[in-house]
Automatic annotation (TrEMBL):
Coiled coil: none annotated. It comes from the Bacteria. SUPFAM superfamilies: Hemerythrin-like (SSF47188). This is Bacteriohemerythrin. Keywords: Iron, Metal-binding. Residues 11-124 form the Hemerythrin-like domain. One of its GO terms (molecular function) is metal ion binding. Pfam families: Hemerythrin. Belongs to the hemerythrin family. PANTHER family: BACTERIOHEMERYTHRIN.
Length: 130
């Protein structure tokens, strides 16, 4: 399970609340990974991927508007990271997801956790400093 901690807060309530939702999506993937009652998890994995994609598009738009309004100097490099996140989700090979469901659930979890730790903790925090 993934828990929100104040360490993840960047000090902007709207963005922090949206970041918390990423934890909720990661927890859905974790719960599905641990659920032994579903032998075929493909449809649920696709739902999680779609939710992750739709939510991050929404969140990135909010965050990018905030950065533009603040005249954040590193906006373009930050946006590239957001675009790469969406591209990675769009490039998921659904045939491989179906063949290796547990592996792809782990991949989703690792990807989101890595994003939280590297992007939110290391990049988003600078939005308020810069």
């Amino acid at each position: 399970m993934f828990k929100w901690k104040e360490d993840y807060s960047i000090g902007v309530e709207l963005i922090d609340t949206q970041h918390e939702e990423l934890f909720n999506i990661a927890n859905k993937a974790y719960e599905l990974l641990k659920n032994d009652f579903f032998t075929d998890k493909y449809d649920k994995i696709i739902e999680i991927l779609e939710e992750l994609k739709e939510y991050t598009i929404f969140h990135f738009k909010t965050e990018e508007e905030f950065m533009l309004n603040k005249k954040y100097k590193k906006f373009f490099s930050h946006k590239i990271e957001h675009d790469n996140f969406i591209q990675k989700i769009n490039n998921v090979d659904l045939k491989k997801v179906d063949q290796e469901q547990q592996k792809y659930l782990m991949d989703i979890l690792e990807f989101v956790v890595q994003w939280i730790n590297q992007h939110i903790l290391e990049r988003d925090k600078f939005i308020m400093v810069d």
